[in-house]
Amino acid sequence: MGHPILRKKSKEVNDINGFLLQTLINDLIATVMEVDGVGISAPQVYESVRLFILASHPNARYPYAPKIKPIAIINPKIVKTSDKIVKDWEGCLSIP
To answer: Which one of 20, 63, 68, 73 has the fewest beta carbons within 10 angstroms of its own beta carbon?
Structure first.
């Protein structure tokens, strides 16, 4: 949970067809599926690159989650934010 890589700005992915990136994507998908998660990011496994896996599905923790086949999101950008604050519990594989 307190690892410095989680607070560091990740590097942009430049070679989206590279073998190392595909290996990382495959490993992240296997990890998120093994632990019945709905997503995982590269920094959570100590790779400081802009990549996360979205693998939403209904489960005990998120019974109403939409069913989405695992997909790799490369170089995501926040394009809009809101001033609205919503309090809720965070579900994260990095926090027990």
So the answer is: 63
Region 20-43 average pLDDT: 94
The secondary structure of residue 63, as a DSSP letter, is T
Give the N- to C-terminal CA distance of the chain in Å, as an integer.
9
Q: The whole model's pTM is what?
A: 0.83
Judge whether 6 lies within some domain.
Answer: no
Distance CA 82, CA 96 (A): 28
Q: How far is CA 58 from CA 19, 27, 84, 87, in A?
A: 31, 22, 26, 21
| Pairwise CA distance, residues 54 & 73, whole Å | 7
Residue 68 in domain: yes
Q: How many domains does the chain have?
A: 1
Check pLDDT > 80 for residue 94.
no
Distance CA 57, CA 64 (A): 8
Residue 60 C-alpha from the chain's centroid:
19
